[in-house]
Amino acid sequence: MDLSIIIPTYNVEDKIEECIKQINNQITEYTFEVILVDDGSTDNTVKTITKFLSKYVWLRVITQVNKKQAEARNTGLLNARGKYVCFIDSDDSINENYIQKMVDLIKDTDGQLGVCGIQKEWVNYSRDIQIENTSVFENADKKSRQKIIELFLNKNHEMDVGLWNKIFIRDLIEKNHVTFKNKNFFEDMLFVFEYLMVIDMNKISTCQEVLYTLIKRKQASTTTRYDVHMDELSDTFFEIVKAVVEKNFEVKDSLTNVLETLRVRLTIHKIHYHLLTDSTWNIDKTKKMVKMNIKLNQIFRYNLDKKYFVSCIMLILVPQLYSKLYIKRTE
Predict the structure, then answer these.
(1) CA gap 18, 23 in Å, rounded
(2) Which of 181, 216, 251 is where one domain is finished?
């Protein structure tokens, strides 16, 4: 079998039928299977899926108690049979040539990772559509391993760290025990990062064609729920990345700056999370977190993108204004 597509599902009874139909409409010469891993849905998701099992021989369903998306994907990997693996989210959308072109991308170039362009569509935000099709992985055959990792950690866009626009080699995942870790905090990015460390990074193939549409929604039931463990998970993510970098590279000034830049970006992410979800959060807590992690005399040394650089300056000089503007921007 050429390809296994792993799709975690949870309470998507209103979306899963369209997802299955999009896969059935694929135009491809490749053999594939779709593994739907239901993560303890409490609605009619599994019942809806079951209607299609006798109709589509390529469709499989696995049910488990609720363990969150990362573990659902791990379950899918354990049951996958394809030479290659892709991951799709059940509420997103794929081009009718997604399977054909993703397998072509990695197979025709003898690649070890394939990356395509994405479209981000906001269905209930003020913004509409945004295309990302220029990746930090472009021209990987002309870059050093260290340079690729530096770009991946500090200059990434969503298309670089996400799973859904990538095709992986299952054998490399299994032999190197690459799994989803750190619960549901940046588990996509961590999986891609650890996969990068076990492949020949000069064999990354990219195409700018948009084959995957990422649907962005405001979902009050999930995004506004505060998780007291989030700061700890953020710190764990950083420590895992730091340990892997130190194990695989001789850490000198450039990589030290890369790690510090990543830490600063994670600090900003923490502040954003608290501002949107933590009812006990206040300006004093923001100031304390900034003081502990972001130093004015240091941020000029780091390779921060403009938006992070501006965020740092504002958080140091006018944290209250920054907080108000950020909350307003997300409304």
Answers:
(1) 9
(2) 216
From CA 330, how far away is CA 125, in angstroms rounded? Answer: 8
125 and 247 fall within a common domain: no
Q: Alpha-carbon distance 211 to 95, whole Å?
A: 5
Return d(Cα 198, Cα 182) in angstroms, integer: 19
Both tokens assigned to 49: 């899926």
Q: Is-contact 79 60, C-beta < 8 A?
A: yes
Q: What is the DSSP letter of 80?
A: -
For residue 102, the number of C-alpha atoms closer than 13 Å in the C-beta half-sphere is 35
304-314 b/e with 16+ CB inside 10 Å = b? Answer: beeebeebbeb
Classify residue 201 by its DSSP letter.
G
Q: Kindly report the CA angle at 6 between 34 and 56, in degrees rounded to 5? A: 10
pLDDT at res. 125: 60
DSSP label at residue 143: S
Question: In this structure, which amino acid lies at residue 16?
Answer: I
107 and 230 fall within a common domain: no
65 DSSP 8-state letter: -
Provide the CA 286 distance to its chain's centre, in angstroms. Answer: 26
Whole domain around residue 264: which residue ranges?
Answer: 223-330
In terms of Cβ atoms closer than 10 Å to its own Cβ (0-12, 13-18, 19+), residue 247 is exposed
Structure tokens at 102: 């993703």
The residues that bridge with 269 in the sheet, in sequence order, are none
The residue type found at 130 is Q
pLDDT for position 252: 74
Q: What is the model's pLDDT at position 324?
A: 94
Low-confidence ranges of the chain (pLDDT < 50): 219-224
Alpha-carbon distance of 126 to 174, in angstroms, equals: 42
Burial class (CB in 10 A: 0-12, 13-18, 19+), 39: buried
pTM of the model: 0.92
DSSP label of 136: T
Number of domains observed in the structure of the chain: 2
Q: Which residues pair with 166 in a beta bridge?
A: 115
